[in-house]
Amino acid sequence: MKTGMLVRGVTRGDGTTGEDVTPNVKTVRSIPLRMDDAAVKKLKLPKSFEVRGEILSTRKAFEALNRQQKRPAAKFS
Fold first, then answer.
1. How far apart are the C-alpha atoms of 39 and 28, rounded to whole Å?
2. Which of 18, 22, 46, 64 could lock onto 13 through a cystine, CB 3.0 to 4.6 A?
3. CB 3 within 8 Å of CB 37
4. Based on the number of CB atoms within 10 Å of its own CB, is 30 exposed (0-12), middle (13-18) or buried (19 or more)?
């Protein structure tokens, strides 16, 4: 977070090099894209700070996503 805005989401990768997954992170509803100034001040957070966590998916959800991605894309005329 930088000045209350989500700037970047990355993977751990191999411990040295990770991947930028910012677009994916922005789709996770429970991850805020911005923080209210009042909340930042109340929590006494610096203007820029790092948040660490894990995003998990159940096997069932993962398999459903794989099936969905195998379907042909819809064509628009």
1. 20
2. 18
3. no
4. exposed
pLDDT at 75 over 70: no
Dump the DSSP string for 4-60.
TB----B--TTSS---B-HHHHTT-TTS-SB--HHHHHHTT--SB----------HH
What's the chain's length in residues?
A: 77
Supply the pTM of this predicted model. 0.65
How far is the C-alpha of 48 from the C-alpha of 57, rounded, in Å?
29
Could you tell me the two tokens for 73?
């894309």
The per-residue pLDDT for range 56-71, each reduced to its tens digit, is 889 999 899 888 888 8
Alpha-carbon distance of 1 to 29, in angstroms, equals 16
- The token pair that represents 3 in the structure block: 């000045």
